[in-house]
Each structure stands twice: as C-alpha cells, then as structure tokens.
C-alpha cells in the first residue's frame, strides 16, 4: 500500500572558521593531545567567534541544504531546529532562522533533546510531513557548545565543538516498502532517572544564569553503547532491515570509542562507519547532519543508499533512524 514518506532532497552544513587543536588546549589547561586522542578520537574542533550565534551557523547550514536541494526557501513550510544552545531563552532560534531565510509562513520551533536533538527533530518533522500537515521541512541541528563549557574543566571542555547541519525533507508518496526513499522508521527514548549525569548547572527558572556543562563521563560511557544498540535493534525489528543491509552508519559523534563499540556490537563493518569526531569534536545536535554532509560531499553516500543514524545524550535521551538516500 502506498505511503507518504519524508524524502531527503538535500543536506548542508557550516563550521565556524576558527579551528582549535588539542595542542592549543594543552597550552592552556593540564591535558595532552595523546590523552584526548586516546580517550575520545578528537584531534581538533571548530569554535564560533563571539559575535557568531547559533542562528548564524544554522542559517548558513540551511542555505547550503536548500542550495543542494535546488529549492527556494519559500518552498519550506516547517522548520524544526534542535539545539541546547539557543541564541536567547526565547524566542526560538528556529524563528530567527526562519526570518533570516526570508520565510514568514508555516511554523518554526526549537526542540531540546541535547545530543539526540537531530534524531528527535527528524522524527518530529517526519511525523508532521506524513500526516500531511506540512509539505517541506528543514531539519536543523545547530550548536555553540563553546558558550556553556567550563574552560577550566579538562574533563569536559576538550570534548565539544561548534557547528550546524541541516537537511531538507519533502512529503512524497512512495510504494510503502523498505526500498522506498526517505525516512523509513524512527525510534526515540528517554529516561530522566539519568538527568544528573550530564546537565547544565544553570537555567532561567532555577539559577537565572546560563550555567556550565557538567558530566559524569564514566557513567555516560557505561550506558551509551547499550542504549544506542538497543534503539537500533528497535529500528531493525520494526522494518526487517538488518545490519548487513546498511550502507552507511552515521552516528552521533561523541567519542570514537563509543562509536567503535556500538558498530562492533551490531556487526557493522568499520568501513561503513562515517567518522568526523576527529575534526569536529562533539557538536551535540549538529553532529549527525555535519557527518552526513561530509559523506555526501565526498561521494560516499549515493542515491538509494541506506543510512542508519543514532544518537544518545543528556536526559538521557537516545534514538535511531533508518533513512534511504
Ligand atoms: N586530559 C588529561 N587528563 C584528564 C582529562 C584531560 N582532558 N580529563 C580527565 N582527565 C583525568 C582525570 O582527572 C582522571 O585523573 P585521575 O585518575 O588522576 O583522577 C583520569 O584522567 C581519568 O579520568 P576519567 O574521567 O575516569 O577518564 P575516562 O577514561 O572515563 O575518560 C571521558 C573520560 C573521555 C570523558 C570518558 O569518560 C567518556 O568518553 N565518556 C563519555 C562521555 C561523552 O562522550 N560525553 C559526550 C556527551 S554525551 C554524548 O554525546 C553521548
């Protein structure tokens, strides 16, 4: 039976110009390139200028995605922007992006699921498109995590970076098979019992400040692989798709050891894993569309390829998506 699917028309990304290497961090705090690379796989990250906001990064990524899709911004009637580092407490950064793109119809809103934000935003947009409520959506992950880092805390500040990525989705009628183009399935989970393991120690209602990121790294690591692989198995069970069918595994880029262990547990071959954590660090909600854009640009991802996306982050939240390019 035919089915409406959210088909990907294009993707794009933007990284701030300034690159900060591990060596540069080691000159400022008690760390080393060797420690950071061995524990995380990160070698460098991009950091936004003081006058460069999350919305600015998002607008550049959105423009790139629209150009890749060969689409005028006016064709977009839904913007879902995942971020934990909005320009302001309100209005939503998505509204600034909407305005920056010259769009004043449809709806635009932010979504907060920390590092899982892009998968949550993709699932949200997909559900709106499949009901027929909207026709074309921009799904954006954009972050300036550098603003909420405690630059004296070596356990966290070496891990994160800034950036933005976006995709354009269009509702299209498809045959209703797993060979269809577009989003085939999404699976979202959260469990607030873990909320104190990775959080920001400030907020408008509690401290009236922005706060800094705090993390029990070992605790996050302990739960990550199990949660990630469980929610991917949910996606496999829902579709009958297996690890062998996957062309590209495009995980949230938090830590190479988490990615390697997840791929290993799922029997996904290392050559199918898209890795950008070395160059981008953990850009939270932006990391999946940033990695996707790299793999599309360099020609790895081709029309018809089956992509497996996953993320896990603060909350904890975690999720997976299967998307045919
Ligand atoms: N440089 C040098 N030494 C450091 C650094 C650093 N940047 N950071 C911590 N250390 C030290 C610690 O002080 C500690 O020293 P001690 O033994 O003298 O007390 C030692 O290294 C070991 O510290 P641990 O925190 O136990 O190190 P661990 O091996 O757990 O690695 C890490 C830390 C990399 C954060 C790891 O726990 C991890 O990857 N966790 C997952 C967290 C993650 O990826 N979070 C991202 C957000 S969540 C997400 O997106 C999935």
UniProtKB/TrEMBL annotation:
Enzyme class: transferase
Catalytic reactions on record: malonyl-[ACP] + acetyl-CoA + H(+) = 3-oxobutanoyl-[ACP] + CO2 + CoA
Entry keyword annotation includes Transport: no
Subcellular location: Cytoplasm
Main location: cytoplasm
Active site, renumbered: 115, 252, 282
Residue intervals of the Beta-ketoacyl-[acyl-carrier-protein] synthase III C-terminal domain: 238-325
Keywords: Acyltransferase, Cytoplasm, Fatty acid biosynthesis, Fatty acid metabolism, Lipid biosynthesis, Lipid metabolism, Multifunctional enzyme, Transferase
Assembly with partners or alone: Homodimer.
Domains: entry comment: The last Arg residue of the ACP-binding site is essential for the weak association between ACP/AcpP and FabH.
Task of the protein: Catalyzes the condensation reaction of fatty acid synthesis by the addition to an acyl acceptor of two carbons from malonyl-ACP. Catalyzes the first condensation reaction which initiates fatty acid synthesis and may therefore play a role in governing the total rate of fatty acid production. Possesses both acetoacetyl-ACP synthase and acetyl transacylase activities. Its substrate specificity determines the biosynthesis of branched-chain and/or straight-chain of fatty acids.
Protein name: Beta-ketoacyl-[acyl-carrier-protein] synthase III
Organism, scientific name: Bradyrhizobium iriomotense
């Amino acid at each position: 039976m035919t089915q409406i699917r959210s088909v990907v028309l294009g993707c794009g990304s933007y990284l701030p110009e300034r690159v900060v290497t591990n060596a540069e961090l080691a000159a400022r705090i008690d760390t080393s390139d060797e420690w950071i690379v061995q524990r995380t796989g990160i070698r460098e990250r991009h950091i936004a200028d003081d006058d460069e906001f999350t919305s600015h990064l998002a607008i550049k990524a959105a423009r790139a995605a629209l150009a890749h899709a060969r689409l005028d911004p006016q064709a977009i009637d839904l913007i879902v922007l995942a971020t934990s580092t909005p320009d302001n407490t309100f209005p939503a950064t998505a509204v600034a992006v909407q305005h920056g793109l010259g769009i004043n119809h449809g709806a635009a809103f932010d979504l907060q699921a920390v590092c899982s934000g892009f998968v949550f935003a993709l699932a949200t947009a997909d559900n709106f498109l499949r009901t027929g409520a909207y026709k074309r959506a921009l799904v954006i992950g954009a972050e300036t995590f550098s603003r909420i880092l405690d630059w004296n805390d070596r356990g966290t500040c070496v891990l994160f970076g800034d950036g933005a990525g976006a995709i354009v989705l269009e509702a299209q009628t498809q045959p209703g098979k797993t060979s269809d183009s577009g989003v085939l399935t999404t699976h979202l989970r959260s469990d607030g019992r873990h909320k104190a393991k990775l959080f920001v120690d400030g907020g408008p209602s509690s401290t009236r400040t922005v706060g800094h990121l705090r993390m029990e790294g070992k605790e996050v690591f302990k739960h990550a692989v199990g949660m990630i692989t469980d929610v991917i198995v949910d996606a496999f069970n829902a579709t009958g798709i297996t690890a062998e069918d996957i062309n590209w595994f495009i995980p949230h880029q938090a830590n190479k050891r988490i990615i390697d262990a997840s791929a290993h547990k799922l029997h996904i071959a290392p050559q199918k894993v898209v890795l950008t954590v070395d160059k981008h660090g953990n850009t939270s909600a932006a990391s999946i569309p940033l990695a996707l854009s790299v793999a599309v640009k360099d020609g790895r991802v081709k029309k018809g390829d089956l992509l497996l996306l996953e993320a896990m982050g603060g909350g904890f939240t975690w999720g997976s998506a299967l998307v045919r390019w």
